[in-house]
Amino acid sequence: MRQNKLNDLDSKEWLKFTKTWFVHHPKARKETDKLHPAKFPESLVEQFISFFTKRGETVLDPFLGTGSTLVACDETGRKGIGVELAEKYAVIARKRTKQRVIVGDSLKIDTLVHDTVDFVITSPPYGPMLNKKGLAQNKRKEEKLDTRYSDDALDLGNVADYGLFVDSLCTVFKKIKPLLREGKYLVIILQNYRDGKIYRPLAWDVARGLSQDYMLVGERIWCFHPETLIWTSEGVKQIQQIKINDLVLTHAGTFEPVKQKFKRDYSGPLFGITVRGLNRSVFCTPEHKILVIRRKFWKKSHCFERFKDVIKKKPQWVEAFDLKIGDLLLLPIPHVTPSSLRLNLSLYTSKKIWISDGFFSTLNKGGQTKLPLEIDITPDFCRLAGYYISEGHGSSRAALSISSYNKEIREDIIYCFNQVFPGIHLHETSKEVLCYSRLLSEIFANLFGSHAKGKKIPPLLLNTHLNNLAELLKGLWAGDGCISSQRAAYKTISPLLAHSLTFVLLRFKLIPNVQFQTDGIQLSFRGKSIEILAEILKTNGIKVLRKKYNNQTWRDALYFYLPIRKIEEKKYTGSVYNLMIEPHNTYVTYSFSSHNCQDDKTLYPYGMGNAYVPNVHHHICLILRK
Q: 400 vs 325, 397, 429, 556, 576, CA distance in Å?
């Protein structure tokens, strides 16, 4: 058996640390502990010391404060050395421990400490962050406690220039390097923070500054696989494609702008979570927090707790690795403010055009068709779009065609064309309606896709009024859909269309059962959902005989509740991503609501009541190796 040279932990304790150390619930702070404005708990330090050292080894903290690291060394049987600039905090530390406390400037640590050490752990000053006004600062002032480390000019916490502060901090750790044994570890506990309108990625800047001296082997912050789908105001996008200021769906059902996007290298396990209904795996790091309602499984009766009993529980944020099959994940119903924007058709052609009196046409020979420069998003246009998306084809080189063997549908297609584009040249056959305007053909191809695999619903339609979307669904279902008293379904080979159609259905408070098949993607409904869909489509004669199917999903006025169907784990090496969203600090993946990298200690999941959502980030533990 390979000898454990790092620590004294057994395999179970080792695994527990690597998965759960970041879910930390420290004991309440004593009155003497509150004297320091940024003390971190001994119990947290104990976990790191126990993992990265053996009994009897030496630990160094270059920013000691009131001595948490040395107290943790006492509890774990390690030797400790601490350096502290402020005499008043050094005095407190000496009262708490018999370990070695040195009063001095950490920038001169190479002259203060000459011992070889086995591990370095510290929570350094966060620059001017403590000087910012806020609720925590006001409370400390009321209690007549320190709101800054000291008034000493040598104190790094008083360095106003952010760049100089980061450089000074990195200098300390570079001077520590000769003291640290080869192959041993340095852990720096930091916070990213906002400085007015500027976001300060302190943890990442320090990691970058030390990249030539240490090897970054890990940092604990949750993230998603780059291809994870995120619900935005424009439908779904891969998280790697999200940009600053993109509007993304939050757990509250509103769309909020992306303030910051994070990317980092990661090597380790990813947990894949698949829910019933949407049936698509979403992969995230084990510690990513997800909005969930816990659900019991009754072994004797071999069934899960009933929804009417589960819904009485409060949702909670749970790490991905701690989820269980059957737990209910929460997907918010999107609250969209309908867009009343007009559609500028000239933006969707690559041809040279001539504009006159609100109309435009092509400059090339034979360009006789005049189209309105802008059109309103009307029910007729949306129904025509639905017909085209299902059974149409367009390009810049050929006529626009929409196929149908149903005469009534062909007549309605002609009616919609005439309502939206009066005087357009059309031709009807027994199987299709042709529009001979290559200009309009190109515009439709660019708006909705040319061929079946590329069909899509454009963002402008996703955010239109529900009465317009109902007409869009009518056109879609007339082409590739079916509906009866037993089942309703829509099938496409375009992933873009499947995802955007799912978004439209979510707006109608309908969640389809999505099946990813070899020959396409099918969205289907059973039970009561069929009657709701039939009402939207205005389909007569649909009466569902059996409404009480064994429900796989549920909803109320705010959320869909989707049971976890499968949890899988896989090894992954590559980039992972995360987003910072304000004010809710959450965003929604394809299947569930997730927390971003911000603090959720006082965040009530629904964002209701007197909950205060602080605009600060979780402590990030950078783990570096010499």
A: 49, 10, 13, 42, 42
Q: What backbone phi and psi angles, to 5 degrees, belong to 348? A: -110, 25
**The amino acid at 440:** L
Q: For 160, which DSSP code?
A: -
Assign 76 a pLDDT band (cuts: 50, 70, 90). Answer: very high
Average pLDDT over residues 305-327: 90
Write out the E strands in 326-375.
Answer: 328-332, 343-344, 353-356, 359-362, 371-372, 374-375
Residues 476 and 492: beta-carbon distance below 8 Å: no
Q: According to the model, what pLDDT value does residue 203 have?
A: 83
Classify 216 as helix, strand or coil: strand
Amino acid at 428: E
Select the more confidently predicted residue: 307 or 469: 469
Lowest mean pLDDT segment, chosen from 52-61, 357-366, 476-485, 510-519 = 357-366
Question: Is residue 192 a contact partner of residue 199, using CB atoms and an 8 Å limit?
Answer: yes
Task: Give the span between the Cα atoms of 517 and 95, in whole angstroms.
Answer: 68
Report yes or no: 24 and 51 within 8 Å, Cβ to Cβ: no
Task: State the residue for tokens 């299709």.
Answer: 432
Q: Residues near 356 by Cβ (< 8 Å), separated by ≥ 6? A: none
Structural domains of the chain in order of their starting residue, each with its CATH number = 11-221 (3.40.50.150), 229-333+557-596 (2.170.16.10), 347-554 (3.10.28.10)
Cα 284 from Cα 289, distance rounded (Å): 9
The two tokens of residue 328 are 């209910």
Q: How do 117-122 and 58-61 pair as beta strands?
A: parallel
- Spatial distance between the Cα atoms of 507 and 503, rounded to a whole number of angstroms: 6
Q: What is the pLDDT of residues 281-307, one digit of tens each?
A: 999 988 788 999 999 988 888 888 888
Say how far apart CA 54 and CA 567 lie, in whole Å. Answer: 35
Indicate whether 135 pLDDT > 50.
no
Cβ atoms 590, 512 nearer than 8 A: no
Whether 309 and 344 have beta carbons less than 8 Å apart is answered as: no
Phi then psi for residue 89, to 5 deg, are -80, -30
Residue 358 makes CB contacts below 8 A (sequence gap 6+) with: 372, 373, 374
Euclidean distance between CA atoms 388 and 420, whole angstroms: 14
Q: How far is CA 233 from the centre of its chain?
A: 14
CA 478 to chain centre: 36
